[in-house]
Specification:
heterodimer; A: alpha/beta; Rossmann fold; 8-stranded parallel β-sheet; 7 helices; 19% strand; globular; B: alpha/beta; 7-stranded mixed β-sheet; 5-stranded mixed β-sheet
Chain lengths: 230, 355
């Protein structure tokens, strides 16, 4: 079945982190749009100090049109090759009227941003999601993913609350491929004790009766170029 | 072939190089291709290779020169300003006839430019960015699977012709993600043995790798030898793709990311009843002049689209040689032409040429 608001813990801060290119940004944008269906004050923070392209800030106008506040480097510096952490994110962490979705850059270098925000995050309830695509290089087996969880949690200085199965190969993704990711992450979850929040399904796939899926599902719209378009 | 993985363009090129038997990488990070170096730094030690971050691109290219002299598969990667820094070394490597692979993930320029995608290093890549009469084989992928395949091919071409090969990818190809299949890891014992390589001369006459001769007549002979090789490459290694050209009355010409975008334009135009096709050079040098020349005989005009102010369009004009009109559309500095703006320009030209 679908992942629903009742599956969320009682927190208003949602953190998406994980390895390079695992689909964190795309999921964070979709997650913000989903939360906006239930709440007026939703913000998304672009804390990606790693990626030169395909960031939350590249979709700023779309997000603003959809009533989501975007916390990102000022427009004049939005294309600068600089690791900017927008300082106003701290205000949104503290502001209880807002839900905050935090999109973190990949790997340890990206996760270091969270370490710097630890003192603020510790004062409020947050939920963190480690986003994984088991068809990405380097994280294709249980041990590498277990190491990653430990490594990122220590760099980010936060708890990892959930794993997210975002196993995909773009437009060629199939339901079987998503289930393949589920099977691997089930084992990781068993070993690490970190539960799986949901599996991500692109909106072009028909999940039918959900019967074969062990995890809950979260449907996303694709925001980044692939295949023919660019 | 293995199962499909979801990779970035930079990762696709890096892994394909390893599969092709490359075990030596020297480079210096620069956006938008730093992930290529990062991938190599992580992956090469796993396969017994050498990753070395040089103190600059100037140092990196000379490390490549040294490693290539031993006949081992070696590469570097960079982006526009870094590729400019490498030009002197590339000229030396070409003159010394050494096999190696360069990757330039092109960003907006000139000068420092920006980190967005561009195709404005075309002249530098194809006409010789360094000094002297030399040529690089230049391959321009437009999908990530093609980036894998061309990288694998690049090492074979480099060895076969004893010539540096350049993968010219714009930032979009470097940064986007697509599913790809990688070839199996090449068995290193099957790589070509180079008689000329500097491998230690115990028990044989020493080999010599050099880019020059102090005697102008002998240096001219060295030049002639290279030119003979370039001629052979021009005859045997031209590669291109035709898309929807069978009944085409108009022709678009584009490479890399722009070829993908113009395919969208072509589908849109055809849905409006306009018969148009695409010619996509895959080798930018040797440029597929003959192939394009033939196509140009049957079309009303040609529109070349680039992420530059117009560089490849000069080769298109050389190929067409006045047989039909050649127009150009481009954006610069990292701005990518959209399908809509290209279609608008194209339809405007159709109206203009009719009158």
């Amino acid at each position: 079945m679908n992942f629903t608001p009742s599956d969320l813990k009682n927190s208003r801060i949602f953190i998406f982190l994980g390895p390079f290119g695992s689909g964190k940004t795309e999921l964070a944008i979709n997650f913000a749009l989903w939360r906006r269906e239930f709440k007026e004050e939703v913000s998304i923070a672009d804390l990606d100090i790693i990626s030169p392209y395909f960031r939350v800030r590249d979709h700023m106008d779309y997000l603003l049109e959809n009533g989501i506040e975007v916390i990102a480097p000022v427009r004049e510096l939005m294309y600068a090759d600089l690791p900017i952490v927008p300082p106003n994110v701290v205000g949104y962490i503290a502001n209880k009227n807002y839900e905050l979705i935090m999109d973190i850059g990949g790997e340890n270098d990206g996760a270091a941003v969270l370490g710097a925000l630890k003192n603020y995050l510790d004062e409020f309830e947050y939920t963190s999601f480690m986003v994984l695509n088991t068809r990405r290089p380097f994280y294709r087996d249980i041990k590498s993913i277990l190491d990653l969880i430990e490594r990122l949690a220590s760099t980010a200085r936060i708890r990892i609350d959930y794993l997210v199965n975002n196993t995909n190969i773009g437009r060629e993704t199939t339901l079987d491929l998503i289930k393949e990711g589920e099977r691997l992450l089930e084992k990781v979850s068993h070993e690490s004790g970190v539960p799986i929040a949901f599996s991500v399904v692109p909106d072009f796939l028909d999940v039918g009766t959900f019967e074969d899926f062990k995890n809950k599902l979260f449907t996303i719209k694709r925001f980044f170029p692939n295949d023919q378009e660019v | 072939m293995s199962e499909k993985l979801m990779v970035k363009g930079t990762e696709a090129i890096a892994e394909a190089a390893i599969r092709a038997g490359c075990r030596n990488y020297f480079g210096y990070p620069i956006t938008p291709q730093s992930e290529l170096a990062e991938y190599m730094s992580r992956r090469l030690p796993q396969v017994g290779g050498i990753f070395l971050q040089a103190e600059s691109e100037v140092a990196a290219v000379n490390m490549v020169y040294g490693a290539a002299s031993t006949g081992k598969r070696v590469m570097t990667s960079t982006s526009s300003p870094g590729f400019s820094l490498m030009q002197e070394g590339i000229s030396y490597i070409a003159a010394a006839q050494l096999p190696c692979v360069f990757v330039n993930v092109v960003r907006g320029g000139p000068g420092l430019g920006d980190i967005q995608p561009a195709q404005s290093d075309y002249f530098q890549a194809t006409k010789g960015g360094g000094h002297g009469d030399y040529k690089l084989i230049v391959l321009a992928p437009s999908t990530l699977q093609e980036a894998v395949d061309l990288t694998y091919l690049a090492f074979d071409l480099a060895d076969e012709y004893r010539n540096p090969v350049l993968i010219l990818a714009d930032g979009m190809i470097g940064q986007m993600m697509e599913p790809v299949e990688f070839p199996e890891l090449r068995d290193l014992s099957t790589l070509p043995k180079h008689e000329w390589a500097l491998t230690g001369c115990k028990g044989r006459e020493p080999n010599k790798v050099t880019s020059f001769n102090i005697d102008p007549y002998k240096l001219e002979e060295m030049n002639k030898e290279c030119q003979k090789k370039y001629q052979k490459i021009m005859e045997g290694e031209r590669r291109s793709e035709n898309y929807m050209i069978e009944d085409a009355e108009y022709l678009l010409v584009a490479h890399g990311t722009m070829a993908r975008i113009t395919k969208t334009v072509i589908r849109e135009a055809r849905s409006k009843g306009i018969k148009v096709g695409l010619f996509r050079p895959i080798t930018l040098w040797p440029y597929p002049y003959e192939e394009l020349s033939k196509l140009s005989e049957n079309v009303r005009f040609i529109l070349t689209v680039e992420m530059s102010v117009g560089q490849m369009v000069e080769d298109v004009k050389l190929a067409v040689n006045g047989k039909t009109d050649v127009f150009f559309y481009g954006r610069t500095a990292g701005v990518i032409p959209t399908p809509n703006e290209i279609l608008e320009r194209f339809e405007q030209l159709i109206r203009m040429v009719k009158v």
